[in-house]
Structures are given as structure tokens and as C-alpha cells.
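Listing S7. Sequence submitted for prediction.
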Amino acid sequence: MSFGKTSYLRRAQAGVTLLMAVAVWRAVDCTAAPPGVSEFLDTYCIYCHDADTQEAGLDITSLDWPSDAATSVGDSQVNSSHVTWQRILSKVTSGEMPPASEERPSEVSARRFREFLGSRLHQTSLSRQRTHGRVVYRRLNRSEYTHTLHDLLGISTPLQEMLPEDGTAQGFDKVGRALNLSVAHLERYLRAADLALREATATTPKPQTRLIRTDFEETWHDYNHGFQNSQWINADDGNLAIVSGGGSIAHGTLRAWTPPVAGARYRFRFRARAMMKRRVEGEDVLAYDRSIIARVGIASQFKDGLAQSQSFYELSPDDYREFVFEARVPAQHTFSIAPHRIVPRDGDERAMVQGMCVVVDWIDIEGPLHETAGTDGKEASSWPPRGHKLLYGNLPLRPVASGIPGPPYRVHSNQPEVDAGRLLARFLPMAFRRPVSDSEIESHLELFKEQLAAGRPFDDALRAAYKMALTSPQFLFLSEQPGKLDDFAVAARLSYGLTGSLPDEQLRTLAAQGQLTQPDVLRLQTERLLLQPHSTRFIQSFLGSWLNLRDIDFTQPDLKLYPEFDSYLQRSMVAESEMFFRHLIDENLSVSNIVDSDFVMLNARLAEHYDLSDTFAAALPDAARPDLARSAASWHSTDAARQRQVSKGDKNGGLLPLTRDPTEGVFPAEHDRLIRCELPAGSPRGGVLTQGAVLKVSANGTTTSPIVRGAYVLERILGIPPDPPPSNVPAVEPDTRGATTIREQLKKHRDSPACASCHAKLDPPGFALESFDVTGRWREQYRILPESAADKRVKNAGSDVRYYELGPAVETHYQLPDGRGFADIHEFKQLMLEDTRQIARCMVEKLMTHMTGGTPQFADNEVIEQILDSARDEGYRLRDLLHGVVQSRVFLNK
């Protein structure tokens, strides 16, 4: 019998090593191990993974055997051993270990080892969960903290950037063990809570809503005499045109208007059209022959720059069009509009374009806008705002005597302690997301009394008590005890999972009645929350973690190689992924669509980028086809029966916002909208893998790497994260000059024994995606930078930009570790779809992490397989999987 490289001498050495390790093995609990388990490790593992050899850094003799000792949360050595045993079991189960070059165990021996180790790991993990829970005491991340204050107090003040960045685990920023709490956090929470409470407090009587009309022509000259000729020209009708050209982008910032009430909401209605400035036969001419994307938002009054809360609108060259949006306007900010960067379509146009122009006819500004509240079915103006009423009830505002510092009006109370106690008793259960005790109310009331005794005004003293609540552990952390969660904890878990914020009134009521954890009720509430506008937060948060879309801004494509890339395209890419996932949820489609689908979500900009303009045009309603402007990135339709079941009489008429809640900034722009388009035969698009946002975040700004993209697919789509690379292996840097292809560079790694096994798994998905560049565009050749002094150049809205050349051909063929080969992305997708259950398993694990705040543990595998079994006959539909997670013991227990 041949043992490969394991000679008699090597096996004798292993025997000596075994004798040296006897003390270790006897020190751990091996009493329950059946005959053959220890022998399996002795025979097939220890000779490569002992204290002396430690191949791949693994010393099995140093590990604690899985036992109930692993229930000790603070024992890092025991916990680390538990994780390592899971890796060992995974390697043996997959057949990777022992390696093919070594003596292989019989199937009976391997099965006995797998069954015993798996059973022991399961019992150990389950015992720990029952004793300590599977999730550590979890803090709200900064997004959840912000949304909670917004929804609780009825404000939209930016707070998230005030807070420190959150830690992540397996890509998720909702995992308890990654969310630490430091002094820096507490300092920032105090500032954020103070700002939020002040923003929610009304300090004046109801301000009058006014409507004014203005335009740029009558306001710009007073401030910019010398600048007008370069970036401001007059259109044929005399209106002022904002010009982007000569290598810069003009920002039409309205200087004549300032918000009369800073931080309030205003409605902007503007009328604008597109115009081109061209060079024809040596003369500048104005042409109305091309649509232009305008970037619109709120910007500083005193400096030009990109607008905040940007939206994009397509302006027609044929006539003026009216657009409306609402925004909250901070102090010293105003309306801003600018032509968005485009790349001329061909060489002739590049030579002609001198600038893109936005011609503004007029702007109507209405505000400040007040909340509306239904009264007998009618809309009525509400003042003070909702947050003020929560904090102070119906207590009156009284003017302050002149000369006294502070706001002109303050909340007045004739019975300060009585009113404060009553208001705190209403506020604290909402803030803490559970019933509160009398002692909790009293402790906050004591602080109020201290502040009042120190001479603080009533509203200041009460805000101090509120701030104490909003920076306390009861607010900052989710209250969960080991074992079965009570209804209030389930309400919080469900709400933070699907809306990113605290439970609403219906969830609180059901929790108080003890009905929420009933399976039918819980399912109906899950459906209801998925239909709420705030469920957009679930989509954005989940995709931000699962697909890493939160890093979409992390790299910027090199415009010398990819001049067609711009921020509007990037925004459209993110909207595509969000809309696609939302569609899978709404229509309850199979997770197989994650790998490949027969449809995509497009707007005109994406359609052009993906070479699917004809497909997009054919999918548009007839009325929208002339300008291709109407699509649906920000609104989605829902299944009618589901809508009626959960939300009868929905005011949105079945249309719910996707990309942004209107209370959080500008309303979604018309040109941001995407629609579902059926793909033509042979298209490489379809599924998540070929979406622009995914292809961008899995690349850098210059090149793609099969290693990086391969790891991305393994971890995020298949749920099989690769092992970390050896520390002494240099990174592969693709050659942007085209002298060496990435396939040639990676051959050196594949030929190395230390790298070959990992590259056998990493390279196939990575090479399958090589047909897509860093912007998600299809390619058959790599783009390279020219080396000659006489570079090719391209006019980009009047500015010279260095141009690229086409280099080596892209090669995508490869084979999977099991020997199955593929030629391109089409064939690779089909190979992936042969194991749809693994794709569904990965999705369940990701949903479980998001919804519970804890990464999957070994004892969860049993639950995961049960969820998959129940969803198998229907093809692993996405909403079914989500319901399976919510109904599981993993979700309903800490």
C-alpha cells in the first residue's frame, strides 16, 4: 500500500508525536468519543498538524475538545477551539482533507468521525445558546440610532455622521460582538441627543407658509459680474443658462432666497430645459438637440459645490418641463441646479461640444411646510410638530421677556413636577421599547427636579431628563434575555430588522397583548412591515452588508480608462440592485434569480451603459417612449392580493418608495426611476453578479482581479468564504499597460503548492466575471493606457481627457475544482444553478445575521436546513426564506 509522501519514517515520527500529545488529549473530555474518532485524527491529521509541523498554522494537539466548557463566554481559548473544530469538520466533509496526496480514510471511518464531531459541536453550541443566548447584548448601530430618533421625535436632522463608525462582522454592521461602546461613543450620543431634542422643540408660534417666485436671471448679476461670461449665458428666450464646459461644472446656486425658518421643509417647483453650446464652423452656436441630466438639490449659499440630497432630472431640449421636489433646508442653504457631466457619444460630437446648459425659466418656493394630521378623514395642518407634542404634550408656548437669552418662546407649565412625571411616563416606554417601572420613571424625574431647582426653565429641565433616557443603556441597547424572547423583544427585533427603527404603535399594542409571537400574527406583521415605506431601510442596509454596497464610494474609476463613468451612473447602479432585490421580495421569486434572471431593472442611463437601450425603450409605456425619461428606480408596485391583505386602503395606491423616504431628504426624481425589462436571448445580464454596483465594489478604480471577485462570489453568493492567504504571498497587481495578462500573472500562484488549492476555488468565478470592467460594462478586450507621448485625447464637455487604447483579449474560460469547465459567464451561471440549495443556504445565513444581530453558529445549522427543507418544493422563494427565519427559534430566542 502506498502512503504517498508519508514514509515509514514519517509515520514513526507521527507515532512519537502522538505519545507526546497524550497528555493533551487526556486533558480534554474525550470520554464520549466512540472507537475510531481519536484514531482518525491520529492517523490522518496529527502528522501534518502537530506542535512541530503546524501546516497552515494548525496544531490539533493544542485544541480543547468540544464540550460544555464552551459555554463559558469569556473563555477565548475554548471558543477559538470550537471554531477551529468546525473548520476541521468542514474540510473533512468537503473531502479537502486529508489531501489527495495522502492516505485517505474509508467512507465508514470518515462518516463516523463527521457524525460524532458534528453531534458534539451541535450539543456544545446549543448548550451555550441556552445558557447565554446566541447574541451578545447588542447596541444600536449609528444608522439605527439615527432612524430611531427621527421616527421617535418626528425630525430629519442629519445625525449619523456625528457618530463614530460601527464595527462589522462578516460584513454586517448589526452584529453585537462588533458593536463596542466607548467614551467617544457616549460623548457623541450626548451631542446627537441634545441636537435631536432641540430640533423637535418648537420655539415659535406656527410660522406662516409663503409662496414666492424667483429666477436666476434677476438674482445672479448682483453677486457674479465677472463670472457670468464663463459659466452663465443667455438662452434665445432671454432666460439664464447655467453652463458646464471647459473642464468645470457650474453650480447654479440661488443667492436671492434664504429659508425663513432654518431646518424646515420647503417645496421647490422649477421649470427648466436642456440646451447645448456647440462649435460649428468656428463659431459658438446654441443648439436644442440633446437631453441633459440636471443634478438638483440643496447647497450652501456662500460657496459653489455639489448639492446635498442630490436628485437627477432629465431635461428635454424640445420645451420646458416642470419638476417638483421637497427638501429640508438648513440655515445658509438654498436651491441648487447644475448640468450633469456627460461624455459625448462620438468623435464628431466631441469636437463640437463646448458646454451643456441648463436653462431655468423660474423657481417657485413654498414653505415652511407643516405636518398634516387626519381629522375626520380630512387633512389638517398640525402645529406644533409631532415631536414637540410627544415631548411636551399640549402645554402652551409662552413668549419670553425681551432681553432674556434663549429662544423667544418657551413651554410653560403650572404644575412642573406633575406634568414632567406624566410626560416621562408616556415617553420612556416608547424610547425603551418596553414597559417601564415606577423606579425608572422616578430616576428621570429626579434629574428633572434637580435641573428645575438649579434655575433651569421647564423645557430645558425636561430635555435633560429626556437626554438621560436617550443616552442610557436601555435606549442604546436592545433588551434581550437568554432563552425565549418576550413579545416586546420580538417586536424590537422585527422592527429593527425590517425598518431599521423602533416598533410602531401596532407592534407595541400586539406585544402588550401578548399576541405578537403567535405564528399567524407574526407572519402578518412581517408582511405589513415589508409594505411600509421604511422597509427601504431594510433593503439598503441588507444590501449594504450582504453585497457590500455601502462601499460603493470607496473607489473611483480612473476617468482616463473609463471616461463614461459618472456619479449618476453609480447612483443608478445602486438603485438597480436595490430595486432588483425589492422585486424578488415583493414577487416572492426564487433565489435562483440571484445568479441568473430573465429580467433586469433599468433606466435610460443603465440601458445605455449595458447596451440595452432598445430593450429599455420596448419596455416603456407608450406615453413615455419619446424621451425615455420615465422609469421607476424609486417606486415599486406590490402584489395586489398581498397589499389588500396587509394594508387595506393604502394611500400610496400600491406604490412605495425604494431609494429614499421623503422625510429624509429630496423626493425621488423622475429620471431615477427604473422599470423591469425582459432580457433578450443571449444577454450576459441577469441576476446579481452582472449588476454594475456589484461589479464596481468587487474591483478597484483601475483594474479587475479574479482573486477579489472570486472571493466576493464565494463568500457573498455561495456562502463558502475562502481561507485567508498565506502571509508571505505577494498581492497580484494587474498590468494596466497590457504587457502581461492577469491569467499569466496568476499562473505563478496556481503553480505554487501553498496557493493552488485556494486558487482552484477563487479563480473560476473571478475569471467568469472578467468580461465586465470596473464600471460593470461588457468588454471583450482590456483597456490600457497608451505609452506614446502623442496620447489619444477625447473632448469631454469642452475639456481634454486622456483616452485609452484596447489591449489584450479577455479570456474567461476556466474549470471548477471538480473538473467541470465553462467558457463564459453564461455557462458559469448554469453550473452555479446546479446547486440552488447552496445559494438559498447562503441567503438564509445572511438574513439570519441581519435579523438577529448574530452570525450563524453551529447549532443554527439544524434550523437553517429545516428552513430550506420547507422552502424546497417552491424553489426556495426569497420571501418564504425570510418568513422561515422570522418564525424560527433562532429569531425568537436570544
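Caption to Listing S7: primary sequence and predicted C-alpha cells for the chain studied. The first strand starts at residue 210 and ends at 214. Residues 107-132 form the longest helix (26 residues).
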